[in-house]
Specification:
The complex is a heterodimer.
Chain A: E1 4-7, E2 10-13, E3 19-25, E4 31-37, E5 44-51, E6 54-57, E7 65-66, E8 76-78, E9 87-94, E10 103-104, E11 108-112
Parallel strand pairs in A: 2-11
Antiparallel strand pairs in A: 1-3, 3-8, 4-5, 4-9, 5-6, 7-8, 9-10, 9-11
Chain B: E1 4-7, E2 10-14, E3 19-25, E4 32-38, E5 45-51, E6 56-59, E7 62-67, E8 72-77, E9 86-93, E10 100-102, E11 106-111
Parallel strand pairs in B: 2-11
Antiparallel strand pairs in B: 1-3, 3-8, 4-5, 4-9, 6-7, 7-8, 9-10, 9-11
The chains are: A mainly beta, B mainly beta.
Chain lengths: 113, 112
Amino acid sequence: EADIYQTPRYLVIGTGKKITLECSQTMGHDKMYWYQQDPGMELHLIHYSYGVNSTEKGDLSSESTVSRIRTEHFPLTLESARPSHTSQYLCASSARDSTGELFFGEGSRLTVL
Amino acid sequence: GENVEQHPSTLSVQEGDSAVIKCTYSDSASNYFPWYKQELGKRPQLIIDIRSNVGEKKDQRIAVTLNKTAKHFSLHITETQPEDSAVYFCAAPGTGRRALTFGSGTRLQVQP
C-alpha cells in the first residue's frame, strides 16, 4: 500500500548525540517536506525538496540538515542534538507543489535530555 | 511570505451543534485553501479543500467557504459528533507556492 513511513517513531537521546530521522515514501511523489510540530500545535516548515539533489530551508530556522539522493527517501539529520530540539518531526510528500494534497507520515517524536 | 491567521484557538460545542473555524491569509495570489484534521496522536489528514475559482464546497457534514475579496475562508461542521473532536488546521500556499503555510490550529471539543 502506498504510504509515507517515518522511523524511529520515538527517540530519547542525550545532548550532543548525532541523530538521523528517516522518511521514505512509496507514493511516487517528487515533493517532500519536513515540518516541526510541538504536540497539537502549529506546523512549521523546516525543509523541503522538489526532487533529487534539490533541498531548501523552510520558514522556521533549524539546525538540522536534509539530503535527497533518491526520490523516495528524505532523511533529516541533527549533528549535535540539544534539549531545544525536543519536538515532533513530521515528514510529508505531495504530487504537486503547495496547491495539492499533502500526505503526512506518522511522525518522529524526539526527546533530547 | 504568506501569513495565515486562524481563530478561535479552542472551540467547545455540544454534540449536534455547528462549529465554525475562520482563517485569513495575506497573499492575494493564493489560490488553494485546504483544511487538515489531526486527531490526538495521529498524523494530519486532508478533510476538504477549495480552489479560488469557487466560493463554497460541501462534503456531507463539512463545508468550506471562501471570500477572496476579504481574503478569508472558513470551515463549517454541522451536526457535530464526538469523533469530530480534533485539532483543525487551515493552510494556504507559501511564498512562491513552494509549500503550504499552516494556521496555528483550532482545538475542537465536542461534548456528548
